[in-house]
Every structure is written in structure tokens, then in C-alpha cells.
Write a structure and sequence with these properties.
alpha+beta, two-stranded antiparallel sheet, 7 helices, 8 strands, elongated
């Protein structure tokens, strides 16, 4: 079995590029982890789908990954890296072989993994494609988090102060509206389409509300 040594992994439910990692993420320092060279097609499917591997593969990687802790090493049960000659991904599985989380790698560490992959034979990995993974489009984590906060604030106004919500709607869209469903729909469309002018007005409005408390 081929191993990769001394790398950082940031397992998340959504696959983020390394420049989207946050300091408060649970970034793990891995001493060694099994690596399998797979085809470009397989890696593309592994990246874009939630997959399930068989029990034979789980046994192959069981507790083969070592993570540094403050005082010792911890064995991780079902973790490995899949790499083509173009890209590498770390995966964490549950005991049924279903992917729990994925991680991209830092650029320099991924480059080292790709170099190793080029020197080893392709591994024939068997897996099921369960469903398409969530696509985060081209939005950054900061944008996604900001939109999530705005949605919560909009819902709070809808539940507690519809007059303020109507006022915000007028400020953003320059028209009056009484239908709550239409109001919420238009705000949702503005967030989905990243309408910067409307988003800025929403942020300013909620900041003003917070300052008045």
C-alpha cells in the first residue's frame, strides 16, 4: 500500500478549495494516510457524487491513517486519499462505506501526492454513486455565510415584524408589496443572483436594527 506523509486535511460536508479554509475549521495534521491512484473518470465521479465503497476496501484502509494529537497519535478508522495525475482528494467514510466528508489539499502537498501517483499503478476502485453532491457554484464561503445570515434575519422579520420587512422591501426594490410570499421570493431571488446593491441595502438595514437594540 502507498502512503502519503505529513499533510493537512480539512474534512467538510462541502468540498472547499484550500483558500476557502477558515482558521476555526477542524484542520487535522496527518502523519500518514493511504493513497490510491485512480483514473481521471473515477476521481471526477468521486468528487462530484456521494459514493459508497465496499467492505473489502474499508478493511484495506481500516485504521491505516495516523493523525497527530497534542501528546500522541490517533488512528482514524476509514480515511484515504484518491489521486489521479491531475487532482487529489482526501475522503472519510462511515462503517458502511458511505462518504461522510471530503477535503482538498494544500497546493504544495497536492503536488507531492500527484508526483507519487504518477509512479504507482492505477488502483481499480469499486463504488456506487448514491447522489450528486451539493454544488457551491462560484460563491465563496464568506458569501454563503453572509447570505445564510440574511435569510435568518429576513425570516425573523417575517415572523416578528412584517412592517419592517415591508419597509425593507420598499427600500430594496422601490415598490410596495403586501404579499409576504412575493416579498420573500424576491429577496430569495436577489440572494441567489448575488444582487450586490440589494444585498448591501439589506446588510445596512440589519446593522442599523442591531445598533438600535
Amino acid at each position: 500500500m502507498n502512503y502519503i506523509y505529513d499533510i493537512l486535511i480539512n474534512f467538510q460536508p462541502i468540498l472547499y478549495d484550500f483558500y476557502e479554509w477558515n482558521l476555526n475549521d477542524n484542520i487535522e495534521h496527518i502523519r500518514k494516510v493511504p493513497m490510491f491512484h485512480v483514473t481521471d473518470k473515477s476521481l471526477s465521479e468521486i468528487r462530484n457524487y456521494k459514493i459508497q465503497v465496499d467492505q473489502e476496501f474499508l478493511l484495506k484502509i481500516y485504521k491505516k491513517t495516523e493523525k497527530f494529537t497534542k501528546h500522541d497519535l490517533e488512528l482514524l478508522p476509514y480515511v484515504c486519499i484518491f489521486s489521479s495525475e491531475k487532482e487529489a482528494l482526501a475522503l472519510q467514510f462511515d462503517k458502511k462505506g458511505v462518504v461522510l466528508k471530503k477535503s482538498k489539499l494544500l497546493i504544495d502537498e497536492e503536488s507531492e501526492v500527484l508526483d507519487v501517483a504518477k509512479r504507482v499503478s492505477i488502483f481499480s476502485i469499486t463504488y456506487k454513486k448514491l447522489n450528486k453532491e451539493l454544488c457551491i457554484t462560484n460563491k465563496t464561503r464568506r458569501e454563503i455565510a453572509m447570505e445564510r445570515r440574511l435569510r435568518k434575519e429576513l425570516k425573523r422579520l417575517k415572523d416578528r415584524d412584517v412592517e419592517k420587512l415591508k419597509y425593507l422591501y420598499y427600500e430594496c426594490f422601490n415598490q410596495k408589496e403586501e404579499d409576504m410570499k412575493k416579498i420573500m421570493l424576491h429577496f430569495e431571488m436577489a440572494l441567489e443572483r448575488s444582487k450586490s446593491e440589494i444585498i448591501e441595502r439589506m446588510q445596512s438595514f440589519f446593522k442599523l436594527i442591531q445598533s438600535q437594540k
